[in-house]
Structure formats: structure tokens, C-alpha cells
Design goal:
Elements lengths: L1 E3 L12 E3 L5 E3 L7 H6 L7 E3 L5 H4 L2 H8 L3 E3 L9 E2 L5 E4 L2 E7 L8 E5 L4 E5 L18 H14 L6 E4 L9 H12 L2
Parallel strand pairs: 3-4, 4-5, 5-6, 10-11
Antiparallel strand pairs: 1-2, 2-3, 7-8, 8-9, 9-10
InterPro entries: MBL_Glyoxalase_II (IPR051453), Metallo-B-lactamas (IPR001279), RibonucZ/Hydroxyglut_hydro (IPR036866)
GO molecular function, one term: hydrolase activity
Cofactor: Zn(2+)
């Protein structure tokens, strides 16, 4: 079960996905809302926090979550504040009941990761791509449009046609032909 705990929040936050199952994980704790209480509405404990990247809107609640649940955070760059353990490109990360392939996808931020579980067709895309072919901004520090295009291309080549769910860092999740949204984002990012 995957739930967006930030849904309906009226603050500057990323989506915050609770992935329940064998290994209960919070993907991006978000910012400026009581995510600890939101987690506790559904589960008593977390096994880990996994970060798509470390922009403030994605990690503002990280310290509160780590303290409340006594968990560590996993991300691409352990030199970033709050990241306890590295996830390298090509690593496998267990979240819920599935194994996810970690893809290092810079362009929006240097430490950006996407997480893809091939068998159930689930992708956590962070701020790389969004619904309807939108893509992550590149005007912030560490942003680079050419690198972003390369990352979108890598993602598009990696996911299967039967990708069923794409959970993005902002906005709605995509459950109807999400691979098409990735393709459209790649086209749009080139202009």
C-alpha cells in the first residue's frame, strides 16, 4: 500500500509517500506539516526513510521523523545533512513488499534518485518528471537542463511499457500510461 501523506496539505511541501509492507518506508518526509502524526494514523513504526533528493521541501520534516521513529535516512549523498546511509546508482532498495532499482538521475539536483520496481510496475520519480509531461526545474543550484534530459532519457529506457504507477514529488500520481508522461517530459525538456 502506498499513501501520499501530504495530500491536501496547504503548505510548501513535497509529496510524502508511506510505503507499507514487509519494510515500511517513508519516501521523502516533506516539509511544514505534521508528517509524524500522519504516519502514526496508519502504522506504529517505520523501518527507514528514503530520499529522492535533499531540497528543503522534501526533507524539512526529516529530523522530526528520525527522532519520532528512531530510523535512519537513506539517500544518494551522505555528505548531505540528515543522510545516514548511501544509495548508489544500481543499488536495490527494499520498500514495502518490493525491491526497487535505484537510478541516479541528476539534473534537478545532483543527489537525485528515482526508484523503480519492475515486477509491480511502480516508480518513484521525485522531481525528475511529473504528470502530463512536466519536468523538474533546473534554475536552482545544481540544476542543469542537459543533464536533466539525459536522466529523463535513462529513466525512459529503463522502465517497461507496463509501468503502472508513477509517484511524483509534486502533484498527482500517474496511473494511466505513466511511461507516456516520461516520454513527453523528455520531449518538453529539450525545448
Amino acid at each position: 500500500m502506498i499513501r501520499n501523506l501530504a495530500q491536501g496539505q496547504r503548505v510548501f511541501t513535497s509529496n510524502a509517500f508511506l510505503v507499507e509492507g514487509e519494510r515500511t518506508v517513508l519516501v521523502d518526509p516533506g516539509n511544514d506539516f505534521d508528517v509524524v502524526s500522519a504516519v502514526r494514523e496508519h502504522v506504529d513504526a517505520l523501518d527507514a526513510v528514503v530520499l529522492t533528493h535533499t531540497h528543503p521541501d522534501h526533507v524539512g520534516n526529516l529530523d522530526a521523523v528520525k527522532e519520532a521513529f528512531g530510523v535512519d535516512a537513506w539517500g544518494f549523498d551522505v555528505d548531505q545533512p540528515g543522510v545516514d546511509h548511501p544509495i548508489a546508482d544500481g543499488d536495490t532498495v527494499r520498500m514495502g513488499d518490493h525491491d526497487y532499482l535505484a537510478l541516479h538521475t541528476p539534473g534537478h539536483k545532483d543527489d537525485h534518485l528515482c526508484l523503480y520496481a519492475r515486477a509491480p510496475g511502480i516508480l518513484f520519480a521525485g522531481d525528475l518528471v511529473f504528470a502530463n509531461g512536466s519536468f523538474g526545474r533546473t534554475d536552482l543550484a545544481e540544476g542543469d537542463r542537459a543533464t536533466l534530459v539525459e536522466s529523463i532519457d535513462t529513466l525512459h529506457e529503463t522502465v517497461d511499457d507496463d509501468l503502472a504507477e508513477m509517484h511524483t514529488g509534486h502533484g498527482p500520481s500517474v496511473t494511466t500510461t505513466p511511461r507516456q508522461d516520461i516520454e513527453l517530459a523528455g520531449q518538453a525538456a529539450r525545448f
